Amino acid sequence: MARPPHEDPEYLKQLKNGFTAGHQRAGPINIPSGSLPWSSPTTATSPSSPQKHLKLSPRTGGQIQHQSNGSQLLSLSAPNKLPGSPTRKLRGETKKCRKVYGMEHREQWCTQCKWKKACTRFGD
DNA sequence: GTTGCCGGGTC
DNA sequence: GACCCGGCAAC
């Protein structure tokens, strides 16, 4: 099967270190060619979408300052809280290093996953 | 209980 | 910076 175009150096390193060329092991994973993140028909032209930041903190420990006294009624009934929060993807579609390789093969994880950060390998 | 990530800590 | 974990929300 074709490898992702953005083959990460980590994986290549493993290939060279783990098993010699011309011999591929059974593979830690068995991903169907249809559900690969890189096989998406939509080419990601944008190198990086700065959709980070802007994370509403649910833990309003410091409390939010009310600008006016009881004037903002509309904000009370409809806070900026969408059901399908775009800030975090649904896990049903995202197979990250941990789920793909498993805790037993943590060495195969991408660095970010090992650090419990946002996955850079499978992360779109 | 598991998973993915932020925030924060240590070196 | 690189590295790691606590803790949280979403399942």
TrEMBL record:
Disordered: annotated span: 17-91
GO cellular component: nucleus
PANTHER family in alphabetical order: GLUCOSE TRANSPORTER 4 ENHANCER FACTOR, ISOFORM G (PTHR13006:SF9), PAPILLOMAVIRUS REGULATORY FACTOR PRF-1 (PTHR13006)
Ranges of biased composition (kind: Low complexity): 35-50
Organism: Zootermopsis nevadensis (Dampwood termite)
Name under which the protein is recorded: Zinc finger protein 704
GO biological process: regulation of transcription by RNA polymerase II
Superkingdom to which the source organism belongs: Eukaryota
SMART domains: c-clamp
Ranges of biased composition (kind: Polar residues): 60-78
Alphabetical keyword list: DNA-binding, Metal-binding, Nucleus, Transcription, Transcription regulation, Zinc, Zinc-finger
Compartments it resides in: Nucleus
Keyword Plastid: no
InterPro entries the record matches: CR1/CR2-DNA-binding_regulator
